[in-house]
Amino acid sequence: MLANGWRLERVVLQVLVSVVAVAMLYPVLWLLSSSLKPSYDIFTDPSLWVHHLTFANYVSGWKGIGGYTFARFFLNSTVVAGLSVAGNVLACSLTAYALARLHFPLRRLWFALVAMTMMLPFHVTLIPQYLIYHELGWINTILPLVVPHWLGGDAFFIIMLVQFMRGIPRELDESARIDGCGVWGIFAKIVFPLCVPAVITTMLFTFYWVWDDFFSQMIYLNDVSRFTVPLGLNSMVDQSGNSNWGGLFAMSVLSLLPVVVLFLACQRYFVEGIVTTGLK
Amino acid sequence: MRQVAISLERSLARPRRRSVRSLQEAVAAYAFMLPWLVGFFGLAVGPMAASLYLSLTDYSLLAPPHFIGVANYVRIFTQDPSFYQSLRVTTLYVLLSVPCRLLFALAVAMALDQGIRAVGLYRTIYYIPSLMGGSVAVALVWKKVFGYDGVFNHFLSLFGWQGMDWVANPKTVLYTIVGLSVWQFGSAMLIFLAGLKQIPAELYEAASVDGASRVRRFVSITLPLLTPTILFNLVMGIISSFQNFTSGYIIGDGRGGPLQSTLFYTLNLYLQGFSYFHMGYAAALAWVMLIILALLTWLLFATQRYWVFYFDGQEKG
């Protein structure tokens, strides 16, 4: 009797969890199906089923704005994201190695400062940073978006890498030192290769934050030829108002695709990153 | 073999050699940290000092900054209705979205922890909104889902309810933005799931033997042991929600409309700094925001001894 009650409860729970899951996914599925519907169907037919399959939205959306197609926006986004990922991995892992493995004066203080910058809202430094980039003539280039990553701007990853490096046995360092490795050699040949899981997490999150970033890209890029995907999407609304939602949805689907594919392929690293550092 | 070699080397190393090595190591450490140090001073400490100075000036990017003392701060608190409006919008958003997101996250994490089938699949599905929710693309979808001819109204009409344009209505638009935030409960859920896994099973077994009901077990075991996780999620949730920008900008009209109902704090700051070029004033707004966030964080940590429970055995368990 008791066992039966327990079982029923589980079935109910399972059904409930599934219903919530479908509700959660509904907006995403609706976006996908709308992008494949002719525009006259999008707002009249709320079902997910596509009655008249068409790729016209993808063709019209791809045309972009201001004479630039989405090929340009995707290229720009990819360049910004790629350079940011490379910089972040290098700067964060170097800093993390020093903080986790080397003995030097003020180490604790530096670690505390890294942790503090994690909580610092970037708005406090926004205006002076803008002025610096303005002075350097970097406005309307990708440099203000990329350079901070080469300077270890995301303290989250430093903390995560430090935690990971502390777990690597120190005996490996010692034996490498005896084999004649210097500090750099130990980093490059021992510690960094063993950190690959944490490095992958860093890469994935950096990519996806930069790919989805809107605020900084809007502030620093004004010329349509420099636009990234989020800026392209945003200006399609500005310009066409209500007219081409089909094209907008099609490009939205394409813009979400890289992030979703990466997530599904590397889920383990995402979960690891969220659980250890509370990344979003 | 290696152990022997290590201890041999240690005993042979003379004090002087060791100090040379430690000096080398310190130099190497600072070399490794060089990129971060440049960023820390050039992009964080320096600009923070500069922004503090700018907040005391009238500066429009065209003419050099003109020192005006605390006039910007006085204006913020006494003569700027848009500051209070942005604070009202943001506070309402934080107060609604952060607790709702945490409640949802905890409820779903508890449900997934009951040993149902295909947990991995559900975890993936629930996380997907967190993955894409911050993007312009999803904010655009949201704007249409809650528009007059959107899916949400179609859904309501199934029950015979008359919908409206939730996004154009200044009374309701903020709730759609809160909804978008709550929809992204997946990352908090993953953190809760990890927290639940750390609670020793013996505690539940002991409680069951003593005849504790499920509600009792939740209140007396699960909830207290999750309070550190709740604190962590609360702090991170408040800090990030307070800085929300994209969803308000896209779902609203980008200028705070309709009727300033989407004038988030950061949007107000952006408009002041980058549309009206009141750079000094925007810097002052940023400092006020930093102080508000610091106070909130301090408050949460200061009160934690009354409600956050650190279980000694948790480390070992």
Layout of helices and strands, plus pairs?
The complex is a heterodimer of chains A (280) and B (317).
Chain A: H1 2-35, H2 39-42, H3 56-62, H4 70-101, H5 107-119, H6 123-135, H7 143-150, H8 155-166, H9 170-178, H10 183-194, H11 196-212, H12 215-220, H13 229-240, H14 245-265, H15 267-277
Chain B: H1 2-12, H2 15-32, H3 34-54, E1 57-58, E2 66-67, H4 71-78, H5 81-112, H6 119-132, H7 136-145, H8 151-158, H9 173-183, H10 186-197, H11 201-209, H12 214-242, H13 246-251, H14 265-275, H15 279-302, H16 304-307
What is the beta-strand fraction of chain B? under 5%
Report the largest inter-chain contact.
Answer: A-B, 92 and 93 residues
Structure class of chain A: mainly alpha
Please describe the biggest sheet of chain A, giving its number of strands, its sense, and whether it closes into a barrel.
Answer: none
| CATH-scheme architecture of the largest domain in chain B | Orthogonal Bundle
CATH topology of the largest domain in chain B: MetI-like fold
* Assembly of the depicted chains: heterodimer
* Main sheet specs of chain B: 2 strands, antiparallel
- Sequence of strands across the biggest β-sheet of chain B: 1-2
CATH architecture of the largest domain in chain A: Orthogonal Bundle
Number of domains of chain A: 2
Determine and state the CATH class of the largest domain in chain A.
Mainly Alpha
Determine the number of helices of chain B (DSSP H or I, runs of at least 4 residues): 16
How many angstroms does the end-to-end distance of chain B come to?
A: 35 Å
Weakly predicted, low-confidence segments of chain B: 1-8, 313-317
* Unreliable residue runs of chain A: none
CATH C-level label of the largest domain in chain B: Mainly Alpha
Estimate percent helicity of chain A: over 70%
Q: What is the element string of chain B, with H for helices and E for strands?
A: HHHEEHHHHHHHHHHHHH
Mean pLDDT of chain B: 88
Domain ABC transmembrane type-1 (chain A): 74-266
Organism (chain A): Alicyclobacillus cellulosilyticus
Protein name (chain A): Sugar ABC transporter permease
Family (chain A): Belongs to the binding-protein-dependent transport system permease family.
